[in-house]
Amino acid sequence: MIKLYKTTLLGCASIALLALSAYQIERSETSNDPVYDNLDKSVDPRTDFFKYANGGWLKRNPIPAAYSSWGIGNVVQEEIRDRLKKINEDALAANAPKGSTTQKIGDFYYSGLDTVNIEKQGINPIKHSWT
Length: 131
Prior knowledge:
Strand content: under 5%
Structural class: mainly alpha
């Protein structure tokens, strides 16, 4: 009888450990999964699969007033624009040695910001390229 009790106890403990490890594996796989994170579990997938699959993202990312549509491509494009702007602004503020890549990036960025000088020069800087 004691042997049966020990075997049963060992079996229950094994099942509990397996269930716990399966839960940990499922939890770790879905914690950084954008598909899983954007599910709207309040919607029945049999009724409206689109809302079920995308509802979380749609709730967290409403269409901005300045746009007629908004999607993940817009989010990526905005993030790239912000990163490039930071690279340019950092290069402009770096006071880098003349001729360095950082100095060239900063000068190029400033040349686009200097609208007063751009307007004053008009097309003269490129005029000779087609004559």
